[in-house]
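Predict the assembly for these three chains.
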Amino acid sequence: MYLPEDELQRIDEEERLLKGQYKHHIHVCLGANCLNAHSAQVLSALETEAKARGLEKVCSVTGGGCRGLCVAGPTVTLEPDNVLYGKVQPNDAGDIIASLGGEPVERLNRPTDNPFFMRQQRIVREMEGRLNPERIEDYIAAGGYKSLLKALNEMTPAEVINEITRSGLRGRGGAGYPTGLKWKTVAKARGEHKYVICNGDEGDPGAFMDRSVMDDFPHRLLEGIIIGAYAVGADRGYLYVRAEYPLSVKRLQLAIRQAQKQNLLGNNIAGTAFNFDLQVRVGAGAYVCGEETALIASIEGKRGQPRPRPPYPAESGLWGYPTLINNVETFANIGAIIRNGSAWYASIGTEKSKGTKVFALTGTVSHSGLIEVPMGTTLREIIFDIGGGIPDGRKFKAAQTGGPGGGCIPEQYLDLSVDFESLASVGSMMGSGGLVIMDDRTCMVNVAKYFLEFCKSESCGKCIPCRVGTAHMFDILDKITKGEATLDDLTLLEELCDTVKHTSLCGLGQSAPNPVLSTLRFFRDEYIAHIVDHVCPAGVCEFEKEAVR
Amino acid sequence: MQTSTLVSAEDKRWRLIRATMRRHGFAANALIETLHTVQEAFGYLDEEALRYVAKELRIPLSRVYGVATFYNHFAMKPQGEHHCVVCLGTACYIRGGSRVLEAIEKAAQVKAGETTPDKKLSLLVARCVGLCWLAPVALFDDEVASEATPEEVAQKVGEWVDHVSS
Amino acid sequence: MSVVVTLKINDIDVSGQEDETILDVAREHDIYIPTMCHLDGLSSVGACRLCLVEVKGMNRLVTACTVKVAEGMEVYTETERLKKYRRMLVEMLFSEGNHICSVCVVNGRCELQSMAGRVGVQHITLPYYNPLRTLDTTHERFVIDRNRCILCTRCVRVCDEIEGAHTWDLGGRGIESHVVTDLNTFWGDSPTCTGCSKCVHVCPTGALFEKGRSVTEMTKHREFLPYLTMMREKK
C-alpha cells in the first residue's frame, strides 16, 4: 500500500516534468459559456495548427478553466507570457501559433492589467483559467488535496471545525449562516449515519457562479465537501446539481471517479479510518429545491416541497439523519482556509463578512462575467471599476442583488459596502451572487412584475400565502404596468406583501415580496406615474389605450 | 401485467430504464433519476412508462404522477422535432426577452410550454441560460441566437413552421 | 417519560409535556388557535399557516401545529397582526377556488365557511380567480369536486398514513396544484382505492362528498381517526 502523500507527490512531479517539456502552454476556456461560443472547435483548431507546424512538442494545447470575462468568450490564455485572447475563432489558430514567442496577435489581445483583473481577489477562483477541469493531475500539481490530507492526518474533526469557525466563513447560499456553527451542530447530532449535501441547485436568474465552480474547479469543490464530511462525521453525501447544468454533472461525475481512484473518496480515505461515499443527484427544474428542506425531499425522490423547521436538517435531515447542507461556493472556500489558516481568511473582508464573494455581473454593464472581490468592496467599485461602467453612454439606475428574493439598490447607495448586513439594511440581500445592473431604460415596476412572475410560477403550492398571494401580487403589478390599476390596488399590494412575507412557510415566499418592497421604497414615484398619470417614465410599459378615468 | 409484455420486448429503451433502477437498487428515492432516463429514452414521460416505474420501484401511482408534474424538466406529452428556448432571465427580460417570446408565439402559433399540433416545434422558456451578455438570447435547437430581435426570431421560426406546412 | 414544562400562552400560565406542540397545549387549556390543514391523528404539515403564533424572542412567526413547547416560552395567539394575517389567508382561500356556499353539500357544516366567521372575514376584497377545475363523479359512492378543494392535503395524508393505500396525491405545482387519484386517472377506475371513505370524511369542505347528498346534507364523521390512531398505538 502506498502513502497518499507519496502518490500526490509523484503525480505532482510527473506533472512538472510533463509541463516542463513545453515552452508554451495554451489554455482554451472550456467553461459552459465559452463552449457555447464554440471554444471546443477553437481548441481542436489550435491542436491541428500546432501539429501542422510540427510544434506539438513545443507547445501544449489544453482545455483550461474560465477567466471570468465571459463577454469576451471564447477566451484563450497563453503561458508563461500571460496573454489573454478574446473572441477567438477557429480560423485564428494559425495566427496564434505563429505569434508564439513573439508579439501577441493584436486584434485578439485583451489587456489583463485593467481593473477587471487587477481589482479582483481570488480564493474560490484561484488558478482560474490554468487548470484543465477534467484532469485531477492538474489540480494536484497546483497543490490540490493537500488540505484534505492535512485535515485527515494532522487535525481532529473538532480542530477542523474550530478552524472554520475562526475563519468567520458564512454560508454563500444567501442567508449567511456561520459555517462553523452549522458544522458544529451536525457534528454534535447523533445518528447511525450522517449526510453531507452540497447544494448546487443554483436557480437565481442571472447567477452562474456555482456553475463555474462545478465546471471549472470540480476537484476544489470535492475537496471541500470531503473535509466537511470528515469534520462532521458523515459517511455519505450527495451533490445536488440542477438539471440545466449537464456539463457540471458530467465533470463532477468524472472528478468523483478520479478521486475514488486516488483513494480520496470511498473507504479508508488516504489510508485512514475515514469512509465517505459521494454521489451526484440531478435536479429536475424546480427553483424551490434550492431551499434546504425541499432539496432533501427531492433527493428522497419526492416533490420538492419544503417542510417547517424546526427540526433543522442538522438534527433531522435526509431520511431523518443529521445532515450538513452547504452551498457550492461555501465548500469551495474550505480547502484554502485549511491550507492558509483561519487568520489569513479572517483578515479578508469586513468585520462580520469575511473572505471574498463571487458575483455574476450582468445586465447593462460593459464587462459582464464572473468576478470575485473581497467582502466590503463597494458597488461603485464593482460596477464602474471592475465592470467598466454602463455602456452606450447610459445612466446607472439600479443594481439588483439577491435574485428573485432580493432588491433593487438605487444610485444613492452606490458607495454601500457589499456584505451581508449592508445589503439587508437597504432591503436587499446577498443571495447567491447574481448582480444585475440596470440602466435608465429600465422600468422598475416591470422589474418587480418580472420577479413576481418568477416566484408565482416557482411557488411549490404547499402554503396558502405563497401559492395564492404571489399570484395576486403579480396580477396587481400586471395591472399597474398596463395602466389599469388604482391607488387602492397599490394599498392592497402592500398588504399582500406584508402577509406573504410574514406568513409563508419557506424562504421563497418570505422573500418574494422583496422586489416589490424595495422598488416601492426607492422608486415609488414610478408606481404613482403608472397609476395616476398613466405614464411609464422609462418608456417600457405600453398602455393599451388612453385610460378612461 | 399489461406492461410486462411490452417491457420484456427487446427494446433498448426499457433496458436503459431498468439499468437506472438497478443502479439505485430499485430504491424509492431513485424515482427522479429514473424519470430522467425515461424522458431521455422516450422524449417524454409516457403513461405506460410511469406505471412500469411505479411498479418496479414500489411507489404509489399518485406519487409518481405528483413528482412527474412537479418538476419543469419533465414533459408529459411528446415533444416537437425542433426546440426553441427563449431565455427570460433578468438580463434578457430587461433587454426585451418577452417581446422576442411574443414574436415567436405569434409566428409559430404556439404558446410557451406547448408543442405545435404537427409536432415540429416545442416552444420553451428558460429562467436563465447564463449567457447574459448576449441578451436577449434564444436557443434554436441549441444554436445560440444572441441579441435576438423579434423580426429575426420570427423569421427563423417561420422557416421551421413553413417547412412543415408546405 | 416526558418532562413537564411550564409556559405562558396569552399571558396565562399553562403547562404541557415536552413532546407536545403549542397547539396541543393550547387546546388542553381551551385556548383557541385556528387550524385548517391540521387534523388530530394525521401528521402535521404546517401548510395553511392559520395556526401561526408569535413567540417572544423568535423573529419569525411559528406554526403552533409543528413547534414543540419549551420551558419559559411566551406565546401570543391573538395579536392584531395575527388576526389581520388570518383574515387575509382565509380570503386567499376563497379567492383561489370556486366556493359557492348556497349550492354546497356541506353548507352550514363547512370548516372554511365557519373559519371565515371565526376570523372575521366579512367580504372578500381580493379578486376571485374563478378557475376552471374538474369534477370527478366516476366513483360509485363518492365525488371529488376540485372547485371546493383548498389543498389542505388531509385526504392525501389519511389515505397514505391511516388507510395505507396512497390513492391520493398532489399533482402540478403552485397555483396549478390539484389533488389527483393515481396517475390523474378517473377515481372510479382506481385500482388502489379501497372505497373506505376516510378521505371524504376528513375533507374540511364540500370537495369530497357522498353521492346522492344534496345541499347542506353531508355530515362528516371523524370519530374513526382518534380511534384508529389509539388502536394502532396499542399494538
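Strands of chain C lie at 4-9, 12-17, 52-55, 62-63, 74-76, 135-136, 142-145, 168-171, 178-181, 208-210. The domain at 101-234 of chain C is CATH 3.30.70.20 (Alpha-Beta Plaits).
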